[in-house]
């Protein structure tokens, strides 16, 4: 699976597109597993970025509190 760089926003937009395609009346059964795998990858990447961002913010806030 291709692992190109993408923004969080792009990943969320792609996830929304995949979800829309899966929820349609007649999802393409031949590509369903590919879409689910891609969605799973995107979700993992988004969670990873959210954790990293939270850790960075915590670090910034902790440094700020230490300086007071």
List the defining traits of the structure above:
68 residues; mainly alpha; rod-shaped
Task: Walk me through the structure.
- The longest helix has 36 residues, at 32-67.
- It is built from 2 helices and no strands.
- By secondary structure, the chain is an all-alpha fold.
- It has helices at residues 8-23, 32-67.
- 76% of the residues lie in helices and 0% in strands.
- The chain has one domain (9-67).
- The mean pLDDT is 88.
Can you write the helix and strand succession as a string? HH
Tally the beta strands: 0
Q: Cα-atom Rg, whole angstroms? A: 17 Å
Helix percent band: over 70%
Write down the overall geometry.
rod-shaped
Sheet bearing the most strands, described? none
Q: Please, how many domains?
A: 1
What is the subunit organization of this protein?
single chain
How much of the sequence lies in strands comes to: under 5%
Report the mean per-residue pLDDT as an integer. Answer: 88
Distance between the termini: 47 Å
Class from secondary-structure proportions: mainly alpha
Counted by DSSP, the helix tally is 2
Low-confidence stretches: none
Task: Provide a brief overview of the structure.
Helices cover 76% and strands 0% of the residues. With 68 residues, it is mainly alpha-helical.
């Amino acid at each position: 699976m291709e692992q190109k760089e993408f923004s969080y926003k792009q990943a969320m937009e792609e996830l929304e597109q995949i979800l829309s395609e899966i929820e349609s009346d007649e999802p393409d059964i031949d590509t369903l597993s590919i879409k689910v795998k891609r969605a799973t990858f995107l979700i993992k990447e988004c969670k990873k970025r959210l954790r990293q961002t939270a850790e960075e913010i915590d670090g910034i806030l902790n440094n700020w509190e230490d300086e007071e």
